[in-house]
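Quick question, first post here. What does this chain look like in 3D?
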Amino acid sequence: MQPELTRTAFTFAAVHRRRDALRVTAVALHQRAGRVYLGLDSGVLEEHRITAAAAPGGAEDAASASTGPGLHPGVAAPAPAQAMRLRLQAEKHLFRGAVAALAIALGAARVAAMSDDGQVLLCTLESFHLAPVPGARGATAIAADPSGRFPAQLAVAVRASKGRSRVGVYDVVPGSATTSGHGALQRHQVPVEATVLQMAWVGASIILAIPGGYAVMRPPPAGHSGTPQQRPQQPQQQQWQVVVLADHLTAAPLLGGIPCESPPQ
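> Answer (accepted):
Ran it through. Tokens below.
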């Protein structure tokens, strides 16, 4: 009788242990730069560099893990992941309250931060210079386009009234702020007849997590003039694998989308 095979979808390992009483309330990863940004309940934004840590045990432990119990003789054990740790590089105090959400605007080299009372700020990754986002007071969720396209795009959901929201799509300004002092320019806004709990970019669309389900919003592309002139060339079709963290009560936040090429027809 063949032993039952099991599969673990995710393997977790601690990469950061705080030595103070502060709590991490938001996390964002800048994969290209090898940086992790942490938002704390004190309103502080921390930048950490990802470094490799020496794995305990060495080659003997790795060899025993490949032949450990519970593995079918014909199934090879997955290669052990290299241990990682975070090293603090910089920090900036942003809000009086906790940092509720973070989003990396790749094309503008900025990180967007939302406080637990609905403030939104843009912080440059080089100098940590701060700039506000116009019309974002009372924000409930933020999401940045992860594709790295230029201009970088940021979506901000704002509570308009009880049970209603509006979602603004912004072009994020790289470097210093605009002449008005803002770090982004709003180019599109859509009313939503629900409270937006979370958001995530999936391709050119934005998935909104709302009480009881999801909604899909597709803003016009950046630089769209709205005039019926020459139709732009259709981009190559892509599939998007979406990671969803589900809540057993209502809706639940969408953590992100990963682009992958369509299979050959």
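The chain has a mean pLDDT of 76.
The two ends are 40 Å apart (CA to CA).
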